[in-house]
Design goal:
heterodimer, A: 330 residues, ABC transporter involved in vitamin B12 uptake, BtuC, 76% helix, globular, B: 282 residues, alpha/beta, Rossmann fold, 2 domains, 5-stranded parallel sheet, 11 strands
Chain lengths: 330, 282
Amino acid sequence: MTRYLWLMIGLSILVALLFVASLLVGPAKIPPLISLSALIGGDAGPLTLVMREIRLPRALLGIMVGASLGLCGAAMQGYLRNPLAEPGLIGVSGSAALGAVIAIQTGLTAAFALALPLAALAGAATSVALLFVLAGPRGGSLTLILAGIAISALAGAFTALVLNLSPNPFATTEIVFWMMGSLADRSFLHVALALPFIVLGMALLLPLARGLDTLTLGEDAAAALGTHLLRLRLMLISGVAAMVGAATAVAGTVGFVGLVVPHLLRRAVGAQPGKLLAASALGGAAMVLAADIAVRLILPGRDLKLGVLTAIVGAPLFLHLVYRTRRDQG
Amino acid sequence: MRLLLCLVAGFVAVLTQVGTGNAAPARVVSMNLCTDQLAMLLAAEGQLVSVSYLARNERSSAMAREARAYPVNHGLAEEIFLLRPDLVIAGQFTSQATVAMLKRLGIPVAIMSPAYSLDDVRERVTELGRHLGQERTAAELVAAFDAELAALRGPSAKRPPRRPRAAVYAANGYMSGPESLSGAILDAAGFDNVAREVGVPVGGLLPLEQLVLLNPDVIVLPTPWPGASRSEEVLGHPALLALRDRTATAPLTDRDWICGTPKVLNAIAELVNVRKKISEAP
């Protein structure tokens, strides 16, 4: 227990440090102390405007999006008992993006703002439910990944189609945003849209810790230990849909966070899926904050997409996991 | 006898045309939004047989109404070939494959560069006038352009002591620099371009936080296109709205800003009005 506690404290400190660093990094070079005093003290000047309306929401969204993706990755891997289950890879984020794009292009979001996260949630929920049906309760790697590829391809194609049909000349170029994700120039409007769904998702997923732990013994044993499997599955689907939906609606598809973070932390929590949940939420927040700092340092002012960095880190790890899965199967 | 006279007259006419070496093309097709508008301004009656479909778009074309009189093309080699043109006018950024195909089919293609300055506008008018064999119309157009520009600029002695600082800010946070056509429009209207202060020569993406810190006197902003896009969301960002509250704004009307035609005078006139309003304000 103490080791777990230390891990959580360490991750929290890391997230806090990265949060402050994210506030201090930007294309406009402002000395750290001046920018922090403009953020906290505040006046009507442009510096306060930059700190409060541009950098603060961006850093907050980094935490929210990262925590969502990390937690959902850990939860799905725990339920399917498969380390390859990751919202971006198996099409959940892509379907959420499709929902968001449809809501934006049909004008629903202009009529009422919550339509954006709600539509993304609906997209994510559909794909998670479909995946669970296709992959079955044990989530065999092959069916899971194949079903994920098909769902990703379909969602991506429809997203491109909807954007190409738009009368807006910029819409087509946004396929990149929906596929790679970015936190550039987001505002508190986006924080306000996503936050309720992300809190709701956490409230649904974090209590699953014990249930996921019992599931490591197999479904019969879990049921004998008092885990209500149907309820667990419903809570999991709703929680993942709410979090991935909200995160994708505001930041686009950021892949591999839910793969890398649980993988790195699994040994530290003694391979217990229950403990991995909260740890992965913190780890995910740290990873997305770090990636968002990196995109601003590598190419300031060019809006390098977040998903580019997370994929460069995540895809080799994915290949490694595929290789190990093959070896395990002999 | 009469027939013979006609024949001779015809022969002489042909000879003189060959003599100047500058037979005006009779069937011209334009396949670029900007050359469409220049060609409509310059071509003789019946000389221009088709313009691109973009020329009819009210939003991007300053001559959408005039364009309705012409059949439109979509820049495809096949449809253009079927129009049997003896000259095709394309833009520098027209699909290379299409241009190569037209040339292989033996159709002369004149490629026009976009205009990045008001001098470029004059040059393009003259250049296209030459291609169309309408040198005199072109010269008249340039003279009228210069006269109107001089009138807009006002007497040079009465230049304002301090030029207001302006920013042209569009979708995705794209800022136009002093070496672009938009920059030339700003300059002609008597504004300094803040893009120069951040070292953006032609144009590029400027993060919103840098625009806020530049704190310009005027922001020139487009109105969003129909249908939503994330690219244009930045124009409604709370930080930009707060900035707009304390600076003047001017509309970026695409049709007068996109193409280097004499219609840029509309954009300059609009900006001059904004500048006068600012200098009158305390």
